[in-house]
Design brief:
Number of helices: 6
Radius of gyration: 17 Å
Oligomer: single chain
Number of strands: 2
Largest sheet: 2 strands, parallel
Shape: globular
Length: about 200
């Protein structure tokens, strides 16, 4: 199913990055893109680069599967895994868009330390602090199950590591500095990526 995986990735990118950026620009006059955080060589900058590598590796994995360059991991190359992958992908895309829209005008790609945005606690943010990343990983993992080669699995792993660093080293410190006690109270009652875990 490499063609389906490739189409799915393009659709995900168009919706989650292209369409959402356009919506934000229409509403605010800004793209919402703030770029990578941190100085060159920093852990924060590494997270941004790792994120970019993961996003590039995911569709490349489908292309290399399509051309027969990479073979699939036999244990994951099953009908059940493909069905699970399609469901995970669909839920991941829908959840990513839901979470992005729930951010309203506070939605950003990256962090500008000098900027103050509203602390969003509605919708999926009622129980999870970073649902966009949670659903994004779910979508990419779903696509990996459609073409389960080593590069697709490595893309998922790289995305998870990038998200962990970005959240812990960039976004959560920024939110705590910006919102203080309000953010600390919010953090105490919500999970980092899933409800109830990572308070």
């Amino acid at each position: 199913m490499p063609v389906l995986a490739l189409v799915g990735f393009v659709l995900f990118a168009l919706l989650a990055f292209g369409w959402r950026t356009w919506v934000h620009w229409r509403r605010t006059g800004s793209s919402g893109f703030r770029g990578f955080s941190g100085r060159a060589g920093s852990l924060e900058r590494f997270a941004g680069l790792l994120f970019a590598v993961a996003i590039a590796a995911a569709p490349l994995a489908a292309v290399l599967d399509l051309t027969g360059t990479l073979t699939r991991v036999a244990l994951l190359d099953t009908t059940l895994a493909r069905v699970v992958g399609l469901v995970a992908y669909a839920l991941g895309v829908a959840g990513t868009l839901w979470s992005q829209l729930a951010m309203g005008d506070s939605w950003r790609i990256g962090v500008d330390p000098s900027e103050r945005t509203t602390l969003v606690t509605r919708g999926p943010y009622r129980s999870v602090r970073n649902p966009i990343f949670s659903f994004m990983v779910l979508a990419v993992a779903g696509l990996a199950l459609l073409t389960p080669n080593v590069l697709a699995l490595a893309a998922v792993a790289a995305l998870i590591v990038a998200v962990e660093i970005q959240v812990k080293k960039v976004e959560e410190p920024y939110l705590e500095r910006t919102h203080g006690d309000a953010y600390r109270a919010y953090r105490a009652r919500t999970g980092r990526f899933v409800p109830g875990i990572g308070r």
